[in-house]
UniProtKB/TrEMBL annotation:
Gene3D superfamilies linked: 3.30.450.40, Winged helix-like DNA-binding domain superfamily/Winged helix DNA-binding domain
Ranges where the IclR-ED domain occurs: 43-250
Molecular function GO terms recorded: DNA binding; DNA-binding transcription factor activity
Protein name: Transcriptional regulator
Organism: Planotetraspora silvatica
Length: 262
């Protein structure tokens, strides 16, 4: 690996996460970098337009980094019809709402709308593909794939304990997916982010293959009282998307449908 490049990317990520409050001193301490190395990396990113320097020695994301994000959203984002369904779901339940789908053979977070009173969900952002075993949005889709395909996807893969509640045993995961398949939706109770529960329902194309999911996330404190309403809302959103796909009113290109996922 090119460690200088790796360190530079870590600096860029830390600047983005700080929302305009990052300073060289803070970044140096946070990332364990020597002050001189940190300043050199920041100057390089600044010269390339990946960060900008604000008054008071603070740094924020620059136009080049923002451009990369726009390219990602344009290429991996959902069709307008799914974005409309997502907006309707969010307006109905007033909680953080997400839509995921296949992109380059991987189940990918395509778009989300933040909740008004919901904490952030881990490192989730558009384009996120990790920790499928811990996320309701992924388990709802995995449950309806052929079992041999799921086995191949997780063969030799360690199920990392993202939180103390994460499923880390392969047999337990298969059992969980069977339950999801029976009930038609998936739940993660603080498996991906502490203090947050998520509920997700899959949608299907005309062949019956799962091609994505709608998900909502809420603080654990109010999940129990809202679970029934949330379940109805995400299943309705998924049902609408499925109906559009089966009627031919919505088409997903092969890359979005996971044509290369096997």
């Amino acid at each position: 690996m090119l460690h200088t490049l790796e360190r530079g990317l870590h600096v860029l990520e830390a600047v983005a996460a700080a929302d305009g409050t990052a300073t060289a001193k803070m970044l140096s301490r946070q990332l364990g970098l020597k002050p001189g190395t940190c300043y050199h990396l920041l100057r390089t990113l600044l010269a390339g337009g990946y960060v900008v320097r604000l008054p008071g020695g603070r740094y924020d994301v620059g136009h080049r980094a923002a451009s990369l994000n726009r390219h990602l959203q344009r290429r991996s984002g959902p069709p307008p019809e799914l974005a409309v369904i997502l907006a309707r779901l969010h307006n109905k339940i007033n909680e953080a709402s997400f839509v995921s789908g296949w992109h380059h053979g991987t189940l990918t977070l395509q778009h989300y709308i933040s909740g008004h009173d919901t904490p952030g969900v881990g490192d989730l952002d558009v384009g996120y593909t990790g920790h499928m075993h811990a996320r309701a949005s992924c388990k709802s889709v995995l449950a309806f794939l052929p079992e041999d395909q799921v086995a191949a996807m997780f063969e030799g893969v360690e199920l990392a304990a993202v939180t103390p509640h994460t499923i880390v045993d392969h047999d337990a995961l298969i059992f969980e997916l069977a339950q999801v398949r029976r009930q038609g939706y998936a739940v993660d109770r603080e498996e991906f982010t502490g203090g947050v529960c998520c509920l997700s329902a899959p949608f299907f194309d005309a062949t019956g293959s799962p091609v994505g999911s709608f998900t909502v996330s809420v603080p654990t404190a109010r999940f129990q009282e809202r679970q029934v309403a949330l379940t109805m809302a995400v299943r309705e959103a998924a049902s609408v998307a499925t109906a559009l796909l089966r009627a031919g009113h919505l088409t997903l290109v092969p890359a979005e449908r996971g044509a290369s996922r096997t």
